[in-house]
Specification:
By secondary structure, this protein is of the alpha/beta class. The protein has helices spanning about 10-25, 45-50, 55, 70-75, 115-120, 125-140, 160-170, 185-200, 215-220, 240-245, 260-270, 295-305, 310-315, 330-345, 355-365, 370-385, 400-415, 415-420, 425-440, 445-455, 460-465; strands spanning about 30-35, 40, 80-85, 95-100, 105-115, 175-180, 205-210, 225, 235-240, 250, 275, 285, 290-295, 315-320, 350-355, 390. The protein is built from 21 helices and 16 strands.
Length: about 475
């Protein structure tokens, strides 16, 4: 199939002009179809990459560029803007790419490459400037044209995919949502995805309840009027509830909210109005509430440290995010995603992850979950760059991670009898049984004498002999 075959006949006249522009423009342009076959390769692409049309057209793009971004664009239906890319050694560019649609169907993708290889060889000062630019590009790339930011949530675990579908299904409702899960599992990422999917026009406003002093929490949430208290801003302050009007308020670490504030939050949820400190008038609001905690909120309700009525008001829908140790099959995809991001941030090109390293990463339980994994991958990337390595290797692991790997390896290689022998209760019982047998032997079968030797009541001796079948 040629590129012309992808174009409707009545548009061919306009497309001939477009093809002429593609040929004359000083930017490398590539078009692939839905099967990742190269359909357009303009003159600038030939010049930049030293590959002629005859060599690459009608052939898979991955045969020439294993790390090409366009296949990912087609697969994910995702737009990238100004992303640093090094499709082969000594080749550096910024690439923008977007899917091509025919109606709702993806029929391919188009990429625009700006060659920056010469810039990469300039002075150290320019290199630093380029690094800062890459950081800026990374931040800007987050604001892409994805139809749903749920695409940013990585995972193939079946249970995890069901959780994503649940979050999607309630996103457009006005129900309050309570998200639970250990620290570092990605609760805020889920919350942002729900907000974006909800299509609410207002802001997404996060507030960490554990990071705000109790005496300041009311003013942060509800705001205050001019001169309400000593130290207040001259013009007053708008509260987080009012700032989130028409949008979503994310109450992170809700389990750390003081009881005194819980009743005030409940009142806002019930009435839908807030009153600033020092004001006599109330403001009607339309705010979607999403709360999150890494604590056992039900236990807190039972202990009286969290209001039961507030719990039920927040728990319109409960979403529990599992820890990373329960979805280890997602680790490789997470690692590759983090490697890609840090390569962009540090203007580097890491080709891959050694299989031995990936095995070790999957062995760990990751108590800090995705946040800890991301931190370790960042260290690995930095070490790989400093050692001029094109791959992440196990030798770059931090010492504390290596110790954990060794611990899991030792236990993993032990058989059941070895693991059983480490149980202190089993050890105590074994010694106790052997000691009783030895005492009975010395006492020549007399339980009275054996009990005296063991310094225990005779009734206790009878019980233990029956227990150990002596």
């Amino acid at each position: 199939m040629r590129l012309e075959e992808l174009i409707e006949p009545n548009l061919m006249g306009s497309c001939e002009i477009l093809f002429k522009i593609f040929e004359d423009i000083n930017i490398a342009i590539t078009v692939i179809d839905e099967n990742l076959i190269t359909r357009l390769w303009n003159a600038s692409a030939e010049k930049n990459y030293g590959i002629s049309r005859e060599e690459i057209l009608n052939k898979p793009i991955l045969d020439f560029f294993p790390n090409a971004l366009l296949p990912k664009v087609v697969k994910e239906e995702r737009t990238y803007k100004n992303v640093y890319n090094s499709p082969r050694d000594n080749c550096h560019n910024f690439i923008s790419a977007t899917p091509l649609y025919s109606g709702d169907k993806v029929i391919g993708g188009i990429g625009y490459d700006r060659d920056i290889s010469d810039l990469m060889n300039m002075s150290e000062l320019l290199d630093k400037t380029q690094l800062n630019l890459s950081k800026l590009e990374l931040e800007l790339s987050k604001f892409n044209n994805d139809k749903s930011s749920f695409k940013e949530i990585i995972g193939r675990n079946e249970k995890f995919l069901q959780i994503i579908e649940l979050a999607k299904s309630v996103a457009k409702s006005n129900l309050s949502i309570l998200i639970t899960g250990e620290s570092g599992t990605g609760k805020e990422i889920f919350t942002r995805a729900i907000h974006k999917e909800s299509e609410r026009e207002g802001y997404f406003v996060p507030i960490n309840c554990s990071a705000i002093p109790t005496e300041l929490m009311e003013s942060e949430l509800f705001g205050y009027e001019t001169g309400s208290f000593t130290g207040a801003l001259k013009d007053g302050k708008i509260g987080k509830f009012e700032l989130a009007n028409g949008g979503t308020l994310f109450l992170d670490e809700i389990g750390d909210m003081p009881l005194s504030m819980q009743s005030k939050i409940l009142r806002v949820l019930d009435d839908g109005v807030v009153t600033k400190i020092g004001s006599e008038t109330s403001t009607q609001l339309d705010v979607r509430i999403i709360a999150a905690t890494n604590k056992n909120i039900i236990k807190m309700v039972e202990e009286g440290t969290f209001r039961k009525d507030l719990y039920y008001r927040l728990n319109g829908v409960l979403i529990h995010i599992p820890p990373l140790r329960e979805r280890k099959e997602d680790i490789p995809e997470l690692v590759n995603e983090f490697v890609e991001k840090f390569c962009i941030e540090y203007s580097s090109n890491i080709k891959g992850v050694d299989p031995d390293l990936m095995i070790k990463l999957k062995q760990l339980d990751w108590e800090g979950n995705i946040r800890e994994l991301k931190s370790v991958v960042k260290v690995l990337v930095i070490h790989a760059i400093s050692n001029n390595s094109k791959n992440l290797e196990a030798r770059f692991l931090p010492d504390n991670i290596i110790e954990k790997v060794m611990e899991t390896t030792v236990i993993g290689e032990m058989d059941k009898d070895q693991i059983y022998s480490l149980d202190i209760n089993n050890i105590v019982e074994k010694v106790e049984k052997e000691t009783i047998i030895k005492a009975m032997s010395i006492a020549k079968g007399s339980k009275t004498e054996a009990a005296k030797l063991l310094n225990i009541p005779r009734s206790t001796l009878y019980f233990k002999m029956d227990k150990y079948n002596i």
